Amino acid sequence: MTCHVYLKDMWASGPVVVEQSILTPWRCCPYEHPARSIKDFSLSHGKDSRSSDGSDGDENKERGNWSSKGDYLLSMVGYAVGLGNVWRFPYLTYQNGGGAFLIPYTLMLALAGLPLFFMECSLGQFASQGPIYVWRILPLFQGVGFTMVIISAFVSVYYNVIIAYAIYYLFASFQKVLPWSECFSWADEFCSKTQIVNDCNTTLHGEIIHANYTFVTSNNLTCINGTINYKPVQFPSEQYWNKVALQRSSGLDETGNVVWYLALCLLLAWMIVAAALFKGIKSSGKVVYFTALFPYVILLILLVRGATLEGAMDGIQYYIGRQSNFTKLMEAEVWKDAATQIFYSLSVAWGGLVALSSYNRFNNNCYSDAITVCVVNCVTSVFAGFAVFSILGHMAFVSQRPVSEVVNSGFNLAFVAYPEALSKLPVSPLWSFLFFFMLLLLGLDSQFASIETLTTTIQDFFPRVMKKLRIPVTMGLCTVLFLLGLICVTEAGIYWVNLIDHFCAGWGILFSAVLEVAGVVYIYGGNRFIQDIEMMIGHKSRLFWLWWRICWFFVTPALLMAILLWSLATFSPPSYGSVQYPTWGSAVGWCMIIFCVIWIPIVAIVKIVKAEGTLFERIASCCQPAANWGPYLERHRGERYSHMVDPKKEKEHEIPTVFGLIYTQ
């Protein structure tokens, strides 16, 4: 019995006929001509077969694989869903028209976020390499991988400091009365839970006079409506944040001492990270079942509690209800904010997506994974907004202020506005504990992936060392990053956190993303990349790839370039609140980001110098995939990569396939 199935030709022009006999194995041949055998090349959608040797059944014995699909998906969700989903997205939505903001947000997800997310997941899974070695696809741009890893290292330093803040507030919640609920001994005269009248107009002996409020009250007078001036006051939670938690100094020039309890919280944060990663993905993949899922339980609890409070609907109306302003869609700033939020929320171009995906089995459906994680991330952002604004609405109701005066973002939301709102609830320590425990878990998930990005890079360079000494290397890495982070827990620590975030988590990542898309699509070849993906997930129709081609070739690069140019054009010197940074502080920031991106031209020059031939031939050679680019395991290479060099070898010339341009010297 013989059957014919026409498949898209992956290595020659025209269709390929796949012929099978009951007594013979599958074989492929162009146009019924004698077939060339294909080595273990399968496009099956079924479950990957597990190896018989090895207790964990890893497909890739050298690098290892995720123990299960759930480990990978939850790790990706934990990486994408972070603090920004809680403390940035709700504020951006409120600020940019409420419910109207969801329109540009969804469009930017489809046009920029998801295509780039899918691309990075596919790259890592196809080559089973981390963010540096995956650039064997285009040696000229390997410096982009170095930039991603270095930026991830910088961000890991201060990100764990934010986790340390959450740990401190978590411990501070174990008190019968929350320490920021009242103006205690640490407060000054400007601390107040209510507005304080400074002066006003009043009537005295038939004449209207302007008088101090003390004079008005001592003479049993009353202020005339509309003439009252209030003192600039601060909530107890704001003064607690600055005076007690941070012991904040006057500026970057005044470093001060290390705040010992923040240093201990930072040490605890790094101990948790090291413990979760002591076996790499094998251990972190189990931890995320709790750290990635339990925040949703807490969010639901906070939402239900918030929805039962007076004033909650007022807050939600400001967030996404009747206060929505669709005229905001006419402002370019709204679309820029939507694109920027999607880009940073999905954690693309940081190297983490490539690193985590590199541990997938070759035939894993990375397409469905990308869509699942992106949708979950965005739904989480919207869901978190309801939990945040319902309680902020209650806070506005109790303090008799409009919602617009109590809403904030970033540190001021997480450690000032929301704690202040929680302190007004019955059994406030419980709600405070839940909130900061949620922040802790959200931060840890993202931190796990960031450190895994660094350890994956080390593993790619020194696989034998990592196989024998993974625990000491991981502990050593966490120790070094802890020591680097001590500057961020001094009295000027918050200024350093803000400085690193301002420079390293900004346009440097955007620049890497633009080069990543341009390199893969325009130099390596978008159609060629699609063929690589089809080797993993199976052949798809032209209609299926139409949307991705439109995005990868045109829309996504254009949007990323627009965001990058906008970010550069609107770049301003760093500041924290009303505190301006000294010139030397800005210089340090510029040195950090230059150190991150300078590897792009340096590595490109090194590659060109090491190549052979004329200058044009050298550049052309570096624009071709390295000889060891392709599937890590031989059984997955098929005919397209049958001549591929062992990935563990370091060769600089291009892959000798019929798709590549071969330069002979």
Automatic annotation (TrEMBL):
Family affiliation: Belongs to the sodium:neurotransmitter symporter (SNF) (TC 2.A.22) family.
Annotated segments matching region Disordered: 42-64
Membrane topology designation: Multi-pass membrane protein
Record field: compositional bias (Basic and acidic residues): 45-64
Transmembrane regions: 102-123, 144-171, 258-278, 287-304, 338-359, 371-397, 430-451, 471-497, 503-525, 546-567, 587-609
Record's GO cellular component terms: plasma membrane
Protein name per UniProt: Transporter
Bridged cysteine pairs (disulfide): 183-191
Primary site of residence: membrane
Annotated positions binding Na(+): 78, 80-81, 85, 345, 377, 442, 445-446
Subcellular location, record wording: Membrane
Keyword Transmembrane: yes
Gene Ontology terms for molecular function: (R)-carnitine transmembrane transporter activity; alanine transmembrane transporter activity; beta-alanine transmembrane transporter activity; branched-chain amino acid:sodium symporter activity; metal ion binding; neutral, basic amino acid:sodium:chloride symporter activity
Organism: Lepidothrix coronata
Any Pfam family hit: SNF
Keyword set, alphabetical order: Disulfide bond, Membrane, Metal-binding, Sodium, Symport, Transmembrane, Transmembrane helix, Transport
Coiled-coil region list: none
Keyword Nucleotide-binding: no
BP GO terms, sorted: amino acid import across plasma membrane
